Amino acid sequence: MLNPSNPIGVMDTGVGGLTVVKELQRILPGEDIFYFGDSANCPYGNKPEDEIFRLSSNMIQFLQDNGSKCTAIACNTISTMAEKLRPCFNHRIISIVEEAAKYVIREGIESTGLIATEFTVKSGKYAELVHVGNPNCKVIGKGSHNLAALVDRGDFNQHDINEEIRSNVDVILAQEPVKNLILGCTHYPIVESNFHECYPDMHIINPALEQANAVKAYLTEQNALNPQKKGTFTICTSGDPQVYVNVGKRLGLFEASELKVVHI
Ligand code: DGL
Fold first, then answer.
1. How far apart, in whole angstroms, are the C-alpha atoms of residue 12 and residue 185?
2. Distance from C-alpha of 256 to C-alpha of 35, rounded to nearest angstrom
């Protein structure tokens, strides 16, 4: 039996997972949220698989040790390894990639661009999961080497961000004139307005709400929703906490009850 008063764990390589926190706070305002962002090691998306696995396992262990009743892997890069990570832990782990793929299937989308980290695109996980429900759906991916790190830096240099977006999305469009674009890295919805500015007619898919809905469905099924009115929000990071304050404001999050630097 899950304890309803325990927190929901949310993890990311940095500030990106705050886009999932935004949706969780909106649909589950009574829940305590316990966040870990590994900004000291961000970006993960250009690292080798064994290193990502080791760093991610440490993060999930830290959330489990802090009582997570379930953990949302808000990071797409880490979520591509969800099946390998799950057997190492004794609480429910919810992958953002799995939830995004279900959305694409449910909406009957026939072709979509995918901008994500190089690791996520190379893993082929999005196409694999989408093809389970819609074998004909075209998923055209392009890995960005720099966008997550540019966002995690927190200074929002508009020129650099737009350049990085255009240079990647144009490669997708040269292959297929897609009308949908999955933001397959949780850092990217923080600069969603830049995507709209660069591609005003594109339907931008932000998987954060899908993952938050999956967390809600799981806790409802387990009878483990926290009955309190307003939850606490604890942020732990291995990096610069000020970036979390700035991004939290930018996204309109409830202010963190606690913000601390933790090395795990
Ligand atoms: N935010 C992470 C994701 O969703 C990746 C950023 C990184 O490369 O660390 O994939």
1. 10
2. 10
Q: Residue 93's beta-bridge partner residues?
A: 71
Ligand 1 pocket residue status of 194, Cβ below 6 Å:
no
Question: Confidence class of residue 197 from pLDDT cuts 50, 70 and 90?
Answer: very high
Which is nearest to 253 in space by CA: 239, 238, 232, 237? 232
Q: Are strands 180-184 and 203-205 parallel, antiparallel or unpaired?
A: parallel
Q: Give yes or no for a cis peptide into 43 (omega within 30° of 0).
A: yes
What average pLDDT does range 6-19 have in this prediction?
Answer: 97
Q: How far is the CA of 45 from the centre of ligand 1 (A)?
A: 6
Please tell me if the CB atom of residue 80 comes closer than 6 angstroms to any atom of ligand 1.
no
Evaluate the CA torsion angle 125, 126, 131, 133 in order and state its sign.
Answer: positive
198 three-state secondary structure: helix
| Confidence bin at 4 (pLDDT 50/70/90) | very high
Q: Would you say 264 and 41 are in contact if contact means Cβ atoms under 8 Å apart?
A: no
> For the chain, how long is the longest CA-to-CA vector?
51
- For residue 215, count other CB atoms closer than 10 A to its CB: 25
Neighbour-count burial of 225, counting CB atoms closer than 10 A to its CB (0-12 exposed, 13-18 middle, 19+ buried): middle
Q: Distance between CA 79 and CA 185 in Å, rounded?
A: 10
9 near 75, Cβ under 8 Å?
no
- Report whether pLDDT(128) > 90: yes
Q: Which atom of ligand 1 is nearest to the CA of 120?
A: 10
**CA distance between the termini of the chain:** 28
